[in-house]
Design a protein that fits this description.
285 residues; 12 helices; elongated; single chain; mainly alpha; Cytochrome Bc1 Complex, Chain D, domain 2
Amino acid sequence: MKFTRILGVAAALAAATAVAQEAATVTPAPEQAPAPVVALEADNTPATWGDATAGAGKAAACAACHGLDGNSADPQYPKLAGQHERYIARQLALFKSGERENAIMLGFAATLSAQDMRDIGAYFATQKVVPGVADDSAIAEGPNQGRKFYEVGEKLFRAGKSDGSVPACQACHGPTGTGNPGPAWPSLGGQHAGYTATALTAFRDGKVWGRDANANAIMAGVAANLSDEEIQGLATYIEGLHNVADAPSAEAVASAEAAAPAAAAPAEAAPSEDAPAEPEAAPQG
């Protein structure tokens, strides 16, 4: 009787084990068809002529450093107003490809298409650069002693060096510094002296923008024979350089003076901020 009972218990345990093993068996669900993969294509559509109206909106991100109208306040950032469309588009493309190194500009240019670059260039090309004032202080010593800084720059810009080691800047950039939009030689007139001096120093040290067939090594060769003093002279001359036709006429200045609020006159102790400042002398292109 006991033996029979033991067999019954054993059979029950075996059955329970079999049921447990059967319950633990996992049947995999059928695999779903994979989601279709769609390649994200870059916008490599060939660019056409830039649209200044479209570029105005796209250039809003540039305003923090370069100014809303392209006239930057900080000399470490170049003025873009009046710059040629193709030149700006080329520089943005170089930033995007890493052929011109600048971590900040790489971030801005990375998302731009070729058409975006042309549109931004077209917008800034329609803006008017505001020139600065050239440094007319005299050089205290050295080969240019007694000459004014801008006079040293003026000679180099217009005639280069007599030994032929430095060509005249105006050969490519024009007598008034407006450049040449055909080969995309940049406009220089009115540019911050600090920015120009930094760029010329980098060129003198061998800096080249672009690689291989896309490289432009012209300026490295031009600047190789410039001294620090000559770079400073060129930079300050270029800052004050502008087309005399763009300067306000005497009539416009007189009209602005006449339009000054008459109520400001009694406040002799605190001159009106609206009163026009006395114009300083600057070289005229």
